[in-house]
């Protein structure tokens, strides 16, 4: 009877199937209490439990295939472009000629697909903790996992925190942290020691972009992330956001920071990928990103601006 | 048993109570098939059926009070600022010294509240078809309905289409069309004869802003609206969008058009309300709008830009 109220009751991770109400998937979490987004399920394609999390793939009736980790929607075929393109091109289009890029998380391969649009890039490392996410993406989301086909990509399966500690100082031009929410396996990716390792792994004037939650739901988390980043990154520290319909509150934010060195003006992209069409032949056109929406992503609603920009002083 | 799948079955309007699943409200509509946003209900405060639609007000557990018309969320206390401030200040901040403003729909009073922040305004007419919406807003949403307290406001209860036909040519500096979706009583507000009446009611170089759906869900509707507006409005024709978490897909768009006459550059506001703080004393600070987010609202994702801007030629 618990399920007759329209959402599944809170269930232990092992009972993840219970979160699939017959006919519909409802996304509930203590991260966004009192609300739930539901998608109609045509068919459940995969259910598994990795060492780290529950993994579900289903065919939805109107959003294409959907990847769910620990009950939270990670991507749908219909709107994944917004997240993948923005988390990748916001940092990479802000610096000239990125050559070495590290992706932490992002096991689905979508960020790799976007990084590989940049012809200047010579080396792409990815460190994903959960092999099941990679396998499932390759099986069910070939247009996302296509990123793994690029010969510049080296896959490391393991803990991103440990991986970064072993990286020689100043190795990367850009680090992209495509993590899930701070409750679960990604928790450490929102903490100060991790940001310190990122800063160390970047060259002077290198850039990092991390998934940084929703201004509508998580201003207190964002406030902490901004404060931490201002302590650790001595270059630019900016918050950007974008629309992603299947994420809670319909938006997701990003922290963009640069290390001390050549100045980075994130709000004015200097490396306009949309001016170079060679990547379109292999990856298809950009569906979401363009130079205008890049700059617009840094314009925040007044309620968020007051909190985030007050941290600047 | 129909309700055990997480959303109410389709029900006749008279049975609107059925759309409230015990404990949660789920928003389902053929306008966004295969998905539903749900809010946890603390208490149902009002249910009625007007001559035009079903009206429900409930106290949600995390979004404050919520107004629902014909099963569709119109506003929540937590995020109404985004919609009301953007639909109002996008047009009014784009022209110098707006004096006469007409609001079509907008019975809750939120747009009036925002219009009345502009000290240049001398006369605000509002034409709302459904008196029950006004009464319910005054009773349950005093911080929204506060717009009716302004002595510059004249309320007309009636059909906006008929009202506009009777307006002498060139009367208004700005018209704001705060309508519900094109299925239901607002249908005519998305059609060409209505846009013609709006154009006639505006002075040369006057502006209109109409609710114009979501780029993620309704590109075909938007394409039609843009094509109609380009035929009828001989000045600027632009599409803008904003984040509103409780609207389907988390965004809502606006058509902004101007009539032949002094040029209007909607993307660069010339009447920066956020520079004048006198309105803050009576209405409180702007929670969402600022001049930067005004310009950013016109930056569209590539998939929408390709469709909307191709209509320009």
Describe the fold and architecture:
- The structure is a homodimer of 313-residue chains.
- Chain A is of the alpha/beta class and 313 residues long.
- Chain A is 27% helix and 28% strand.
- Chain A contains ten helices and 13 strands.
- The first copy, chain A, has helices at residues 80-92, 110-115, 131-140, 142-145, 160-165, 192-201, 219-232, 278-283, 291-296, 302-310; strands at residues 20-21, 24-27, 35-49, 54-60, 65-69, 72-76, 100-105, 123-128, 153-157, 172-178, 202-211, 237-243, 251-258.
- In chain A, the strands form two sheets. Chain A has a seven-stranded mixed β-sheet with strand order 9-8-7-10-11-13-12, sandwiched between helices.
- In chain A, β3 and β4 (54-60) form a beta hairpin.
- In chain A, α6 (192-201) packs across α7 (219-232).
- Chains A and B meet through β3, α9 and α10 of A and β3, α9 and α10 of B.
- β3 (35-49) of chain A pairs antiparallel with β3 of chain B, so a sheet runs across the interface.
Summary, kept brief:
Two copies of one chain form a homodimer. With 313 residues, chain A is an alpha/beta fold.
> Largest chain interface and its two residue counts?
A-B, 54 and 54 residues
Mean pLDDT of chain A: 90
Counting DSSP H or I runs of 4 or more residues, the number of helices of chain A is: 10
Helix content of chain A: 25-40%
Please mark out the parts of chain A with pLDDT under 50 across 5 or more consecutive residues, or reply none: 1-20
Catalytic activity (chains A, B): S-adenosyl 3-(methylsulfanyl)propylamine + putrescine = S-methyl-5'-thioadenosine + spermidine + H(+)
Keywords (chains A, B): Polyamine biosynthesis, Spermidine biosynthesis, Transferase
Domain PABS (chains A, B): 22-259
Organism (chains A, B): Fraxinus pennsylvanica
């Amino acid at each position: 009877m618990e399920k007759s109220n329209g959402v599944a009751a809170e269930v232990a991770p092992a009972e993840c199937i219970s979160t699939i109400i017959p006919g519909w998937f409802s996304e509930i979490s203590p991260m966004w209490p009192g609300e739930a987004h539901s998608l109609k399920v045509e068919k459940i394609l995969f259910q598994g439990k990795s060492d780290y999390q529950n993994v579900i793939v289903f065919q939805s009736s109107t959003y294409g295939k959907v990847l769910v980790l620990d009950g939270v929607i990670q991507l749908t075929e219909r709107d994944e472009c917004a997240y993948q393109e923005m988390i990748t091109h916001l940092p990479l289009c802000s610096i000239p000629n990125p050559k070495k890029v590290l992706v932490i998380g992002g096991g689905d391969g979508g960020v790799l697909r976007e990084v590989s649009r940049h012809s200047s890039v010579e080396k792409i490392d990815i460190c994903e903790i959960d092999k099941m996410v990679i396998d499932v993406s390759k099986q069910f989301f070939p247009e996302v996992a296509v990123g793994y086909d690029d010969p510049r990509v080296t896959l490391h399966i393991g803990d991103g925190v440990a991986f970064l500690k072993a990286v020689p100082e100043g190795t990367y031009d850009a680090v992209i942290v495509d993590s899930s929410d701070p409750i679960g396996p990604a928790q450490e990716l929102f903490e100060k020691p991790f940001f310190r390792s990122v800063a160390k792994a970047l060259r002077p004037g290198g850039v990092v972009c991390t998934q940084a939650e929703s201004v509508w739901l998580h201003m207190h988390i964002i406030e902490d992330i901004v404060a931490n980043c201002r302590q650790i990154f001595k270059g630019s520290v900016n918050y950007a956001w974008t629309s992603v319909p299947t994420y809670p509150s319909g938006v997701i934010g990003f922290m963009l920071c640069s290390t001390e060195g050549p100045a980075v003006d994130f709000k004015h992209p200097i490396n306009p990928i949309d001016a170079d069409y060679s990547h379109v032949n292999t990856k298809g056109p950009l569906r979401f990103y363009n130079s205008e929406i890049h700059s617009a992503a840094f314009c925040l609603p007044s309620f968020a601006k007051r909190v985030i920009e007050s941290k600047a002083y």
